[in-house]
Amino acid sequence: MIEQVGRRVRLRHAGHVLVREAHQVLRARLDAVDTTLAESGQPHRLLRIAHTYSLGLEFVPSVLAELLAIHPELRLHCRQRSATEVVSILLRGEADVAFTSLSPTEADIVVEPLFTESLLLASPSGDPLSERAGVSLREVRDRPFVAMELGSSSRMHMVNACARAGFVPRIAIEGTCLRWSRWWAPDWASLWCPRE
User: Fold this and answer.
1) pLDDT at residue 8 above 80?
2) Residue 194's pLDDT is what?
3) Strand locations in the chain, DSSP E?
4) Which residues pair with 76 in a beta bridge?
5) Cα separation, 180 vs 138, whole angstroms
6) pLDDT level of residue 111 (50, 70, 90 thresholds)
7) Which residues partner with 67 through β-bridges?
8) Which residue(s) pair with 75 in the sheet?
9) 4 Cβ contact partners less than 8 Å away, ≥ 6 residues apart
10) Does 188 score more than 60 pLDDT?
């Protein structure tokens, strides 16, 4: 079911089949428990939620607080991942709801846009750009960029915006934490903070 590839282990076809079947068995078990609880007068439905890191800072907690105020019987299980992982979790059936900036295109998935946001370009105080209300992305094409890791939707949005502006950004620093970028702002000529 598995094979070794260098230092890593990879699932073979049979392993993927086992994983898929195990997910279905576990989902059926959870459904059976929820049905039994509902029939016994204890409707504690589990709502499985996947969301991106940035939306987990404020947006998702506020939505879930409102949801629990209306439906206090709900049990919530949240998974915070990158946007691509959130979509994968949803498509594997491991989440009932996903909050992400990427939209799955599968026909059986309902996509409901909740809001839109502009991308934000931040620069250190004292930078001439910081005094202006708006900046063309082309004006910072030669500056170093700080970005989230490959696979994050923030990185994808940044790279796509730069491509539309006619250049490939020079990534000087990349990381996995949204909050770390604040530490670099005073020292870097350009800091890209796309918001999901």
Assistant:
1) no
2) 42
3) 2-5, 8-11, 46-52, 75-81, 97-99, 120-122, 144-148, 170-175, 191-193
4) 47
5) 25
6) confident
7) none
8) 46
9) 10
10) no
Q: Minimal CA–CA distance to 138: which of 163, 113, 112, 156? A: 163
Mean pLDDT, residues 81-109 taken together: 85
Report which DSSP code applies to 149: P
Residue bearing tokens 């105020």: 69
The letter for the amino acid at 65 is: A
72, amino acid identity? P
Query: Which tokens is 6 given?
Result: 């260098």
> Taking each helix axis from N to C terminus, what angle separates 153-164 and 83-91, rounded to the nearest 10 degrees?
120
High-pLDDT (> 90) share of the chain, % = 17
**70-86 pLDDT tens trace:** 988 888 999 998 888 88
How far, in Å, CA of 154 to CA of 181, rounded?
Answer: 13
